[in-house]
Amino acid sequence: QVQLQESGPGLVKPSQTLSLTCTVSSASIGTGYYAWSWIRQPPGKGLEWMGTIVSDGSRNYSPSLKSRTSISRDTSKNQFSLQLTSVTPEDTAVYYCKSSDDVWGQGAQVTVSS
C-alpha cells in the first residue's frame, strides 16, 4: 500500500524558507495518474491546500500562496518537496503531503519563530 512520510526542519526563522520533503513508497510519483499535494493546518484552523504536482510534472498552486510556494520532485528518489519562502509566524502549521487517492502522511509540525 502507498505510504507517505514528511521530513524537514521543525523550526524556521521568520523571513527564511521552509523546506519539506515527502518520501513516497509503493507508488511511483512520475508514472500513472497520481497527483501529489501539500496541505497544511495552522493551529486552531482548518486544512489549507497549498499545491499539487501531477505525475507529468505539471503544477498547480493555491492563488493565495502562489507567489511564495514551489513544489518540485526527484523521481529517482521518489520524493516531492515543498518550499515556502519569506515565512512568518502565520505559516506555523502541521504540513501534510497527500496522494490523489487520499493517502496522507502523518504530518510535520513546523513552527516559525525567532
What keyword list fits this structure?
114 residues; 4-stranded antiparallel beta sheet; 10 strands; 6-stranded mixed beta sheet; mainly beta; single chain
Give a short summary of the structure:
The chain is an all-beta fold.
What report would you give on this structure?
- This protein is an all-beta fold.
- It has strands spanning 3-7, 11-12, 18-25, 35-41, 48-54, 59-61, 69-74, 79-84, 93-99, 108-112.
- The protein is globular.
- The N and C termini lie far apart (39 Å).
- The mean pLDDT is 95.
Helices and strands in order, then pairings?
Layout: E1 3-7, E2 11-12, E3 18-25, E4 35-41, E5 48-54, E6 59-61, E7 69-74, E8 79-84, E9 93-99, E10 108-112
Parallel strand pairs: 2-10
Antiparallel strand pairs: 1-3, 3-8, 4-5, 4-9, 5-6, 7-8, 9-10
What strand line-up does the widest sheet have? 2-10-9-4-5-6
| Largest beta-sheet characterization | 6 strands, mixed
Report mean pLDDT, rounded to a whole number.
95
Share of residues in strands:
over 45%
Instruction: Please tally the helical runs, counting DSSP H or I stretches of 4 or more residues.
Output: 0
Helix content: under 10%
Give the helices and strands as they follow along the chain. Answer: EEEEEEEEEE
Q: Could you give the distance between the termini?
A: 39 Å
Radius of gyration: 13 Å
Instruction: List unreliable stretches of 5+ residues.
Output: none
What shape does the CA trace take?
globular
Instruction: Give the tally of β-strands.
Output: 10
